[in-house]
From TrEMBL:
Domain of life where this protein originates: Bacteria
The species this protein was found in: Pseudothauera nasutitermitis
Pfam family, one: YjdM
Cross-referenced Gene3D superfamilies: 2.20.25.10, SH3 Domains
Domain Protein YjdM N-terminal: from-to ranges: 3-32
Protein YjdM C-terminal domain location: 45-112
Protein name in the entry: Alkylphosphonate utilization protein
NCBIfam families: phnA
InterPro entries to which the protein is assigned, alphabetical: YjdM (IPR004624), YjdM_C (IPR013988), YjdM_N (IPR013987)
Length: 112
């Protein structure tokens, strides 16, 4: 029995894979395989100790961090409340008292 999805347009059960797409031989409809999309949705952000981070968590900075555009550094032990997880290299958006809004890398924080 086939585990391939039926065609979303004509509901044909005779679909086949062609590279990264599914193809329906009856109506010639092509659509992408959603494996990559489900992997992206299941992206997990972890702190320096391997704990899973979520939106709204409180984290603590584990290393002195130089802040671009500021003359001072972000000290070890600085508590950051109510984080937001985002895509990109700096995967945490937050507001820090005395510094304002900034992005942090999850490898430099631990869950509080």
């Amino acid at each position: 029995m086939s585990t391939l999805p039926s065609c979303p347009q004509c509901s044909s059960e005779y679909t086949y894979e062609d590279g990264t797409n599914y193809v329906c031989p009856e109506c010639a409809h092509e659509w992408p395989q959603t494996v990559a999309a489900s992997e992206e949705e299941s992206r997990v952000v972890r702190d320096a100790n391997g704990n899973v981070l979520q939106d709204g968590d409180t984290v603590v900075v584990i290393k002195d961090l130089k802040v671009k555009g500021a003359s001072s550094v972000l000290k070890v032990g600085t508590k950051v409340k109510n984080i937001r997880l985002v895509e990109g290299d700096h995967d945490i958006d937050c507001k820090i008292d005395g510094f304002g809004s900034m992005g942090l890398k999850s490898e430099f924080v631990k869950k509080a």
